[in-house]
Write a structure and sequence with these properties.
Layout (H helix, E strand, L loop, with lengths): L2 E3 L2 E6 L1 H7 L8 E3 L7 H8 L3 H10 L7 H11 L13 E5 L2 E5 L9 H5 L2 H11 L5 E7 L3 H10 L5 E8 L5 H8 L6 E7 L2 H12 L2 H9 L2 E5 L5 H20 L9 E6 L4 H12 L3 E8 L4 H8 L1 E3 L20 H8 L4 H14 L1 E3 L2 H10 E5 L2 H15 L5 H17 L5 E5 L7 H7 L8 H12 L5 H4 L11 E3 L3 H8 L2
Parallel strand pairs: 5-15, 6-7, 6-9, 7-8, 8-16, 10-11, 10-15, 11-14
Antiparallel strand pairs: 1-2, 1-3, 4-5, 12-13
Helix pairs in contact: 1-6, 2-11, 3-4, 3-11, 11-12, 17-18, 17-19, 19-20
The structure holds pyridoxal-5'-phosphate.
């Protein structure tokens, strides 16, 4: 399988090369040249397997330059008991009739990013060997909160890698910040940026495309790579849990083979829901893909109108990992839906960077709408849903998960389609204690660690062990920078 740039199909790389590089030099996203198909036999076989075995089977279809055994070893390490507190890795919890919540936060940092970021460092280390790379990979990350921590945790002390993370100074929760600034490891660094997530992401993209910086780093024995979901090695492990959820429902006789399920995903950079789309394209029986946004509703509007317009007010919300106006992975979807038309994608992306918006052509828009339904949920709705879930189901969900639960409900009301549906739960409620406490009618005052304890006392739900352990950690990093200085900070880190 080859990986092609969405902006120039002449750029063609192996899986290992694509993972090592992260982003194509032309700014395009490295994307599989074709989407492999599976059949019912494949799904039935998968149903009898463990999560790591499922992961190896699905990923082997794309990473043809890795062996299935190699992938299985990685998956066993990645999703094993050292990091995950549930042997099923991503259990689907029955909330109500025809309503399932796919819990993706049982990993070491309590966010769904672990599902990919426990796997990516292993894929990348192997990629360096496979491609004969002798330089050190420096992973540069812009984070809205969860990716940064999950990436640092995944890459900490991994040979031949360094990792540096930028996060928006006032855009992450107290617990998220604490998780990052206390990260252990000789090869890690982190810095707050005065700005929002898009500023941080734009800064990182600029560093990536800066020929000068690349030259300097090359002389020092480094090259830059990415752990953001622009890296195919981030998207691929995320396909697995949609297969796995389907297989679990099959195994428990909740569905019959071939029966379609709807999937609702709380969306920011469009990575997680794109993974669900790939799974559907491969033949997983999926009906509608429901794209849930918070008050930053750029994707809702896009799905409705075909116009992507990032020129709008940016809101800081209680679901910060979705406070994004430029959803990078949409580019991969447009590439596939346009029939792998790299010129068309390149034109849209140029319009986006020059004028802040683009409009897709009619044919593309109808393809988009056939697959996706988009909706958004404001702050009051998010809070309300957390409270309702607690009262009605005695189930504590985080702010991002609440956005998905709310939008799924909207979808059902708007369309009457109350078919069996799975919505993704992307973070533990303990990562957003203040908002969650507030939503269930409790006083949210207190610092990060105090609030963990408070939420525990009120809910009786177990605190994830590593979050409980934060109170014993010391702060290692204390760096804040203007967005215009991000390049200097990186050069300083890679002395
Ligand atoms: C990253 C993240 C999201 C958004 O996922 P994308 O792949 O960027 O769409 C949603 N919820 C949480 C908790 C996240 O960390």
């Amino acid at each position: 399988m080859r990986y092609l740039s969405t902006r120039d199909k002449n750029v063609s790389l192996s899986g290992a090369e694509a993972i090592a590089m992260g982003l194509s030099r032309d700014g395009g996203l490295l994307t599989p040249e074709m989407i492999p198909e599976i059949d019912e036999k494949f799904l039935l076989a998968l149903s009898g397997l463990s999560y790591p075995e499922r992961a190896a089977k699905v990923m082997a279809l794309y990473l043809t330059d890795y062996t299935e055994d190699e992938l299985l070893n990685f998956a066993r390490e990645a999703y094993g008991p050292d990091g995950f507190d549930d042997t099923r890795a991503a259990p689907a919890r029955e909330v109500d009739k025809n309503l399932y919540c796919l819990e993706l936060w049982h990993g070491p940092t309590s966010a769904f990013k672990d599902m990919a970021l426990q796997m990516l460092p292993r894929l990348l280390s192997a990629a360096l060997k496979k491609t004969g790379e002798s330089r050190t990979a420096c992973i540069l990350v812009a984070t809205s909160g969860d990716t940064g921590k999950a990436a640092m945790e995944g890459f900490a002390d991994v040979d031949q890698t360094k990792i540096f993370v930028f996060y928006p100074k006032d855009g992450v929760s107290k617990i998220q910040e604490l998780q990052m600034v206390t990260q252990a490891g000789q090869n890690v660094g982190v810095c707050a940026v005065k700005g929002n997530f898009d500023d941080a992401q734009t800064g990182v993209k600029q560093i990536f495309s800066d020929v000068n910086i690349r030259e300097i780093l090359n002389k020092r024995g480094y090259f830059l790579s990415s752990a953001n979901s622009i890296n195919w090695g981030r998207i691929l492990p995320q396909l697995v849990y949609y297969f796995s959820a389907y297989c679990d429902l099959l195994r428990e006789n909740k569905i019959k083979i071939g029966e379609k399920i709807n999937i609702c995903v709380p969306t920011g950079n469009f990575g997680d829901i794109l993974a669900a789309w790939y799974a559907k394209q491969m033949g997983l029986p999926v009906g509608k893909l429901i794209c849930a946004s918070n008050r930053n509703d750029v994707l809702t509007e896009f799905i409705k109108t075909g116009v992507y317009n990032r020129d709008r007010e940016f809101y800081t919300t209680m679901s910060p990992s979705m406070d994004i106006l430029i959803s990078s992975n949409l580019e991969r979807l447009l590439y596939h839906l346009s029939g792998e038309n790299d010129m068309e994608v390149r034109a849209y992306m140029r319009e986006l960077s020059e004028s802040g918006k683009y409009e897709i052509q009619k044919d593309l828009k109808s393809k988009l709408q056939a697959e996706f339904w988009g909706g958004y949920c404001d702050e009051a709705g998010t809070s309300q849903t957390i409270g309702d879930y607690w009262k009605k189901y005695h189930y504590l969900i985080d702010t991002h998960t609440a956005v998905a639960a709310n939008v799924l409900e909207q979808y059902r009301e708007a369309t009457g389609d109350d078919h069996i549906a799975v919505f993704a739960s992307t973070a533990s409620p303990y990562k957003f204690c203040g908002s969650v406490l507030n939503a269930i009618g409790e006083n949210p005052d207190g610092d990060g660690v105090e609030l963990l304890e408070k939420l525990y006392q009120v809910s009786g739900v177990k605190i994830p062990a590593r979050l409980a352990d934060l109170k014993n950690k010391t702060r290692r990093f204390d760096l804040t920078a203007e967005k215009s200085d991000m390049d200097k900070i990186v050069l300083d880190f890679l002395k």
